[in-house]
């Protein structure tokens, strides 16, 4: 029997949910609003919320000062590149671990995950030196490689969880139904694995897009993605809140839009296959 | 034609000898049930026949041809799994058509066969649905449909009714029996439920710890159990197994009496006892009775026999229907 929920209880729950939602969303909203203010209004105290002189001047200046399109393309190349390269390595790896596990499979998975527990700065110097000597500093190739490596454990784990969910009996049923291995892969395995791969792909694009530590440290100008583009507005000539906000809005807009359109897949991805 | 022969078939998983050695002949068109407690190796044996597991020794002959090393796809057998194992991304139609598509049959022929199978199984209205939109019984029928379309040499059922509720299980049991009557194809059916075994089988294979305890028709096993294990496993409620002075007097280590082979009375009889539990089913009453000098016994009485917890009753076992077993548990 379903529990009866009183109207009052519903109202309170909605109020709490909305408060939390607004609290989380507020910084993004504030950034967005600030990007349309003049620098003076941006630092005015008390700040005005909606009643100020709206201007798109910041966007024009940001575009003029730094080449948004170049950084945007860098972000696209680096996040897509590292995601596809990561999937290329992780799909066979997760596949093997899910369908023909050995005694050490769990340990290998744990060990891979444990690399994510290490503070990245601990590996910065050696990686920086390797990049310097290998001529990879400030190159898209270098960023693709490093982002692939840092996200690989998560990609493998996610795919492993998805592949684990594919019941072995269904594959056996296909074999009994006369499917050869290639046909089994094409008609049964792939269609069942694709939703999991898609969620992993989306989540990983977002992770790579937002990754700031390595991209900031290993790129300067040529290969710098949008994270570096935002950062460039934060210090050298003092703080320019309005321009910084405009740059931030331009940097997060693409990924926010992509996230919005792929909500369904993403939620599945973030719950790590826990909810069927 | 679908005869299946097993010769010295064995299966070892690591250190564990799941099936030491089995010889079995299954005739064409027979309904054979593998029955036994969980872990007795019945599912493993079925999977060996299917080719989903490799044998560790011995040989399997299907339809007169050696099949020991043939992959599952080449054995011409169809299997229905406990979990149904339907393809979740395909419609009911595509699920049923899948084996035909794999066999490279042309589209028109596939459509005709799928329509026929759907009609037999009352699935015609559900052909465009996905498996998740079906009830448990319907899913099971789709799994059976997928098995019957390509006219296999034999059907293998791996506990197909375990996931269904009691009422549906009885229905599906009848449907599968009817299907066997219609198709006359060899069927091998694995279950731990002796009622399913008794009601469906032409031939029951009772397995225990990877060994065959007895092979025979349901009534053969009921009337002439070869040993204590079969005696205790076949029949519901279970046969009473009595040891001690009473058994020795009959010249045996153990004496077995089925609950239905005892006469109960309020006035007279050879044993007396106190009713501990009375289960009233309406038609029958099953009584658990603490019999003086014998121990706890289960007896079946007519549903009209009035009794309650704590009543004193008289019990007379039918002396002509006693089963006697020796020290090793073999029937005398």
Write out key terms for the chains shown:
heterodimer; A: 276 residues; mainly alpha; MetI-like fold; 13 helices; 74% helix; 0% strand; B: alpha+beta; Rossmann fold; OB fold (Dihydrolipoamide Acetyltransferase, E2P); 6-stranded mixed beta sheet; 5-stranded antiparallel beta sheet
Write up what this structure looks like.
The complex is a heterodimer of chains A (276) and B (332). Chain A is mainly alpha-helical and 276 residues long. Chain A has a domain at 66-232: MetI-like fold, CATH 1.10.3720.10. Helix content of chain A is 74%, strand content 0%. Chain A has helices at residues 7-34, 39-43, 57-65, 68-99, 105-114, 121-133, 140-165, 168-176, 181-210, 213-218, 226-231, 241-261, 263-270. In chain A, helix 8 (168-176) packs antiparallel against helix 9 (181-210). Chain A is globular and about 75 Å long. Residues 272-276 of chain A have low confidence and may be disordered. Chain B folds into two domains: 4-232, Rossmann fold (3-Layer(aba) Sandwich); 237-325, Beta Barrel (OB fold (Dihydrolipoamide Acetyltransferase, E2P)). Chain B is built from nine helices and 18 strands. The two termini of chain B are 39 Å apart. The interface between A and B is medium-sized, with 17 and 23 residues.
């Amino acid at each position: 029997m379903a529990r009866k929920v009183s109207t009052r209880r519903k109202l309170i729950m909605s109020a709490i949910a909305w408060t939390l939602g607004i609290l989380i969303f507020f910084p993004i909203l504030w950034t967005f609003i600030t990007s349309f203010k003049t620098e003076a209004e941006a630092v005015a105290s008390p700040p005005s919320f909606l009643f100020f002189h709206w201007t798109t001047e910041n966007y024009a200046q940001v575009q003029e000062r730094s080449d948004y399109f170049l950084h945007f393309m860098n972000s696209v190349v680096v996040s897509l590149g590292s995601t596809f390269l990561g999937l290329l390595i992780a799909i066979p790896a997760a596949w093997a671990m899910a369908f023909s596990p050995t005694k050490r499979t769990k340990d290998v998975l744990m060990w891979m995950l444990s690399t994510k527990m290490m503070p990245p700065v601990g590996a910065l110097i050696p990686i920086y030196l390797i990049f310097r000597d290998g001529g990879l500093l400030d190159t898209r190739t270098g960023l693709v490689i490093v982002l692939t490596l840092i996200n690989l454990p998560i990609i493998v784990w996610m795919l492993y969880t998805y592949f684990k969910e594919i019941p072995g009996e269904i594959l056996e049923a296909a074999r009994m139904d006369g499917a050869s291995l290639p046909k089994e892969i094409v008609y049964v395995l792939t269609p069942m694995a694709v939703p999991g791969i898609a969620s992993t792909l989306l989540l990983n694009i977002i992770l790579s897009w937002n990754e700031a530590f390595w991209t900031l440290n290993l790129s300067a100008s040529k290969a710098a993605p949008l994270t570096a583009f935002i950062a460039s507005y934060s210090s050298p000539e003092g703080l320019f809140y309005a321009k910084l906000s405009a740059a931030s809005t331009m940097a997060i807009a693409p990924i926010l839009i992509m996230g919005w359109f792929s909500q369904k897949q993403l939620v599945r991805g973030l719950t790590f296959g826990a909810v069927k | 034609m679908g005869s299946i022969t097993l010769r010295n078939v064995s299966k070892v998983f690591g250190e564990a000898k799941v099936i030491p050695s089995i010889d079995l002949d299954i005739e064409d068109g027979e309904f054979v049930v593998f029955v036994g407690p969980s872990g007795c190796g019945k599912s493993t044996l079925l999977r060996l026949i299917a080719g989903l597991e490799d044998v560790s020794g011995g040989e399997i002959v299907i339809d007169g041809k050696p099949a020991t090393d043939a992959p599952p796809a080449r054995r011409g057998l169809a299997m229905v799994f406990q979990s149904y194992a339907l393809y979740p991304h395909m419609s009911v139609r595509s699920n049923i058509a899948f084996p035909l598509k794999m066999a490279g049959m042309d589209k028109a022929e596939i459509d005709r066969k799928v329509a026929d199978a759907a009609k037999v199984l009352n699935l015609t209205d559900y052909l465009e649905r996905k498996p998740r939109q079906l009830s448990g019984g319907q899913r099971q029928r789709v799994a059976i449909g997928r098995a019957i379309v390509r006219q296999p040499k034999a059907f293998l059922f791996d506990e197909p009714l375990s996931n269904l509720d009691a009422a549906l299980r009885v229905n599906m049991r009848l449907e599968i029996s009817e299907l066997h009557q219609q198709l006359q194809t060899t069927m091998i059916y694995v279950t731990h439920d002796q009622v399913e075994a008794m009601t469906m089988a032409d031939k029951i294979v009772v397995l225990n710890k990877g060994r065959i305890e007895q092979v025979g028709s349901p009534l053969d096993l009921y009337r002439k159990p070869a040993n204590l294990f079969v005696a205790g496993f076949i029949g519901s409620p279970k046969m009473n197994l009595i040891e001690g002075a009473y058994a020795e007097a009959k010249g045996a280590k153990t004496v077995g009496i089925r609950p239905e082979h005892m006469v109960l009375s309020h006035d007279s009889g050879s044993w007396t006892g106190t009713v501990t539990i009375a289960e009233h089913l309406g038609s029958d009453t099953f009584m658990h009775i603490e019999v003086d000098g014998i121990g706890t016994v289960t007896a079946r009485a007519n549903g009209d026999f009035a009794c309650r917890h704590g009543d004193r009753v008289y019990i007379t076992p039918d002396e002509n229907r006693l089963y006697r077993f020796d020290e090793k548990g073999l029937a005398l």
